[in-house]
Amino acid sequence: MRAQYPSQTVGPFFAFALVREGGNILVDEQTLGERITLKGRVLDGDGEPVDDALVEIWQADAHGRFRHPADPQYAQADPHFKGFGRSGTTGEGFCFQTIKPGPVPPSPVPCIAVRVFARGMLIHAVTRVYFSDHDNTQDPVFAGLDPVRRQTLVAQRCELPSGVVYRWDIRLQGEGETIFFDL
Amino acid sequence: MSEAGHKGVLDWSIQPPYLHAPYVATVRRAPHHPLVPLAASLMERTGPVYGEGDIGPLDHDLTKNAAKNGEPLGERIIVTGQVLDENGRGVPGVLIEIWQANAAGRYVHKNDQHDAPLDPNFVGAGRTLTDEKGFYRFISIKPGAYPWKNHFNAWRPAHIHFSLIGRNFSERLVTQMYFPGDPLLEYDPIYQGIPNTKARSRLISRFDLETTQPEWALGYRFDIVLAGYDQTYFEPGGH
Ligand SMILES: [Fe+3]
Fold it and tell me: Where is each Intradiol ring-cleavage dioxygenases domain found (chain B) (predicted)?
């Protein structure tokens, strides 16, 4: 076995390399599924917004298929949906224009994989976001989590004139600290 | 960092902890709860797939990809290496993105207030894909050291930031490549945040005469071992 290489912080100056115009928009006109905006803030231990974090998401298409050869349904995955997005948190926080993923068996409910990088984080943090309009206790991972703390993984659905918005804050530390996983 | 018995992707005897007080910004950003073990589902065993169409012809050459009216100033370097998995196999198709300060130690980023000159012919960002054997190659300028306000008289050693996206969500690394013989490494709380000297030293590239091009550029070799789930493996039934 070779020893894995250690992580180092993404630092404060990554945006010009990693945050590309449109990198937070996962959909085009032909993408199948319900259009949603997933937005929120990354908060530090003082509850202050972190304005130099990077959030990455990875998700299935509207039918719960991943555009990746390890998915047995890869060939049927939506060609208009790659499933990966990146957003910096300058200003308002992070924001993704995407679709509500379909559930991926054996889970009957959808979720999105999330990774957070920031100055002051020598290594990224991995989490997941679920949706408030589903019975997430049916999900095998969610069901196994602390019943109080797991609420930190649920994005709240808001139906606005402009469309469906899911609001979800990531708290790195302290009261209401988001559950982070050891993948 | 996690419960005993869970064998996760990351080896916490090698990876830096969230809280490393000498790096002051970790104090308010480090999670306090232990990480919760996660048995990877199909979601973590898949990830974005990149191809040649995602990369432009000059993306790997930072001496050319932002040139306006000449060559960037500084010491020209070639940085090359192989991305391997923990079994020592080359990993193809890894998206490697790099970013760095210019020769004077200044980033183009708007929040960089270091009083050092910008270079009109250098942005300091590049990207490439590893080939079928896991090899990559960048051409750039040796970055300068730069001050930061972590503590009195704090200077970052010269470094190039690396971001790697491997074959699935679990295969992900953001790190920094350093240069051999840099006296600042000893004083750098980011580098020193890695829990042991052996693991730290892996981030120091090696000067390589084979890579060095006569009358043109110095060569540095930087291999990277990327942890993650093997993409060829997934459980029958698809989860
Ligand atoms: Fe830097």
Answer: 79-107
